[in-house]
Structure formats: structure tokens, C-alpha cells
């Protein structure tokens, strides 16, 4: 068999292993180096260097696997978008991943001598939240990945997409409670995601419309920061209005507004923004999501911001594929947060109800060369 070490012997021993791809001819004519097999076996014993940071994500749709580095380079180099017919044809074997019980290493990067890896759960988006029993199975897989990272002396593991759902595992706190003595730090990245959203709101904005069911700790952090800056937060839901009024100090409550009007220029959007709700927005409205998943764009006369993300430093190596729907060399804020956590050497978790100091993590990200990415799209 031709191995990576086979032809290297030609350059060190000179009169052996002439074949580039067909070593059978060296074998037939007696020019195969006797150490070919032993050198290959020795190379396999070299211990692989453990990553310092792992980003734990999962596949989304059945054909999303082809947009990772496990699939085709040309697809991986472009943002994931609506599938073509030939994508769907190739998904027939995708469900076979369900038999796997370990994360898959899909990317390896290097940033200033810091080894980074992306691990993908062998599950798709529809597996999350199917039933309480299915949630237990998914949580067991995530926990197994975290314990694997702990065993490999990983410093930080960041939880991406649905791996950090409140309903699933309390934003990762479930694993900390079960394994309180772990050295590994679990990061959900909420602090940097909040900072990214706050810095994306156009300067001079005096009022924002909040579309969210208040199930996310990010929501309260964003609202609090806006209220402290004197920005009015408008909600059309009386229950949400009452919750927000009770949540914050009296000096901030006056900036929480109850209104049935949807005619607002800036919308902060959480989960479940339906088409009919988008149709109520005024012409020229700006939709800014603070969710892991992008908004379905239904209006041609409105602007849609990307999900919270940052441009990576030029020194980050081997980033050949796109992260889901983001362009090349752009990472989600949740993923960047894990890297910054390791670069700063912070010795604390960011999961459960814990949220890193927003401006602290924002300044740290900028210091390490990450840049804001605000891509405004119109359908």
C-alpha cells in the first residue's frame, strides 16, 4: 500500500521507492526500501497534540454534512444555503450516522500556537427536542464529548447551536453539576453574543421593538444594557411587559413600553418570527437576530442582519470551510467566545445563568484580532 511515508524514503535513501503512486513496481523490481512498513508503523505511534479549544456543534439538515470538510471542498467553501436536487440525492446514507456514539472531528485550526478543533455531534437538528427520552440520549452524547475533552486536557469547550439549549441542559449547567471537579471550562458564549448584538444596533437608536418569549438569558442582558443606555424597549405582549417591569430597577422601568403598534424601525428578534409578524413591520425596518439560527427573510423592503458573528484574525490557519450560513473566515460569536476564553486564560465557566461581563469579553475579542461582522441582507 502507498503511504505518506513511502515516497519520503526516496528523498532520504535516494535509490529506493521510486514509485509515486504505484509501489507494486518497486516491490517487483526490488527497489522498495526495507524500512517502508516499519517507518509507517512508527509514524502511527506519534501522539497527536490535543486541542486547547473545542467547539461542539452538530449537523443541521441531512445534507449539511456535505458542507463540512467531511464532504466536498467546493460546497464547504460556500455558505450553507437551500439545497439543490443533487444534494438531496446524496443524503441516502446520512441516517447511518445515528449508530455513531462519539463526536466527529470536522475541523482543525491553529491560532497563535493555540490548537483549535471543531467536533460535530452525529445528530441532526430534528433530533433535539423530539421527546424527553431523545433529550436524554442527546445529553448523554454531549456529556460524553465533554468528558472526552476533559480526558484530552482540553482547556475550553464551547457549545454551539442546540447543544446549549435551556430546555435541553440549562445552557450547559447540567454537566457542571454532574462533574464539579472538571478542569475543563464549559462556555456557551452568551456574553460575547450579547455584545455583538448591542454593537450592531445603529447608533442614535432611541427605541427598539422586542420580539422574544423571554426564555433566554441573553434577552434580559440585552434589554438591561439598552435600558441603562436610555433606549426604550417596546413589547406588544402584556405578560412580557409585566415580567420586564418586575425584572429591573425602578429607574429603568420607565423605558419599558407596552404597545400594540409594530411600526418600529429596529426589531430585536428571538425565536419564531413568523411571516405575518414580519408583514406588520414598517417599510425599511431592520431585523437584528440574537439567535443561533438566521431569520427567514420574507420582506424585500426590509433589512436583515446576520446572526451574531465576528471575522477571524488573519493569523488563524486552515479555515477552509464556512460555518453553516456564514461566509468564509467568519465565526459565530458563541464559537469565538470559547477561543477568547482560552486566550485570556479565564478560569471560570460561562453556562447556566452565568454570563461573562459583556464589555470585558468584547474588548478581549477585539484585542486578539477578531472584528465585528455586520452583514445586512435584503431578499
From TrEMBL:
It is a multi-pass membrane protein. It holds the Pfam family CER1-like_C. GO terms for cellular component: membrane. Its main location: membrane. InterPro entries: CER1-like_C (IPR021940), Sterol_Desaturase_Related (IPR050307). Residues 209-372 form the Very-long-chain aldehyde decarbonylase CER1-like C-terminal domain. It is found in: Membrane. This is Very-long-chain aldehyde decarbonylase CER1-like C-terminal domain-containing protein. It comes from Stephania japonica.
